[in-house]
Amino acid sequence: MTGNVNIGQHAAIIAGSVVFSAANLTMDSHSSINTTALGGSPPPQTSGTPVGDDGGGGGHGGRGASCLKRNKTSNWGGDVYAWSTLAEPWSYGSKGGGTSSQNKCGGNGGGRVKLQVKEILYLNGSVTAEGGDGGLNGGGGSGGSIFVHAVKLKGYGTISAAGGRGWGGGGGGRVSLDCYSIQEDVKVTVHGGLSIGCPGNAGAAGTFFNADLLSLRVSNDYVMTETETPLLDFPTMTLWSNVFVENYAKVLVPLVWSRVQVRGQISLYRGGSIVFGLSEFPVSEFELVAEELLMSDSIIKVFGAFRVAIKMLLMWNSKIEIDGGGNTVVTASVLEVRNLIVLRAGSVLGSNANLGLYGQGLLKLTGHGDTIRGQRLSLSLFYNITVGPGSLLQAPLDDDASRSVVTKSLCESQTCPIDLITPPDDCHVNYTLSFSLQ
Fold first, then answer.
1. Could you tell me which of 69, 91, 220, 419 has the fewest CB atoms within 10 Å of its CB?
2. What's the rounded mean pLDDT across residues 282-290?
3. Are 209 and 88 in contact (CB under 8 A)?
């Protein structure tokens, strides 16, 4: 339509797919555009609906949860898809799995909504593409897709592509807002659905992409989960500005030799976590490139080696754990932080392999519990290093196996290590010493 559209109070538009095109769109209080549990078939050759009779949740933006215990470190229901179109999503959510071959009672996937508004969208109602509930006999469906294009988004309404509740909760869907101005009172949610069979393991969070700012946010809205949201290849031509992982969301970067690069911040808050690689195969090197890496009550876990190039690293009650896996191919992790590193409130940066930190500014371990440690550790080029009361710089590690790898050959030698007699002129890691400070 070339004119305005108004959806009045308590009016509802219910369908599997909804598309609006208007000059201005107004949704009054308690009005709704609802595609919850009305999804059609997901894209071909996707695995959003889990295989088997485990009652796992459907996947889309995030993986569906599985309550079946296996001898695996990772366990999930339906998998993710439509990563390449997250800036303008248009895929249905997936159905949850059943609990037997007779009971195919999983909740349906969420539908699709596209709102193309030339000027202003006044949202005081709700726009939903949530997954359907599965109950005791099936997994929750995954959330669907919502795409909004407008110059201004105003109001106090909600936009939700959350996963459905079930034996295993459904994964969140995908939401993208392409709006020059967004009022903060509009609530956007893509959290995973609650799991009846394993209450502490809901479906994984979906994705919320700000297409105007090129910013990705993964939030599980404080819903506890052990199920991950995989992030695949990051763009290299037009870099995203920021990535936020927060509110108990768990992100996985599964592709080996991956590079995560943004123009601005990578931020982890309030229980958010990122895992690089797979614990069974710590054979890869991962790169993280940004202006700032900000962490508060959060964790980064790396299986392999880690290469970081940033200007600022701030950690509050957070951990960066690097597991080299004893691999001889990827032995050293290097963090180049040009301006500032500050660890506070018991933060830990550690590796069970070689770890090098390079910088030109301040490195500060503020107080009790703040720790940087590695099997071998090198700190180079910092203008100022402050080790506060109760904080620790350590190499080698405390365990006997790690300590003997570094120290045994030196202790048995009758001569002093060459690095002590003749320090090198360059700033490379001194592999004959466990701890090098330059």
1. 69
2. 91
3. no
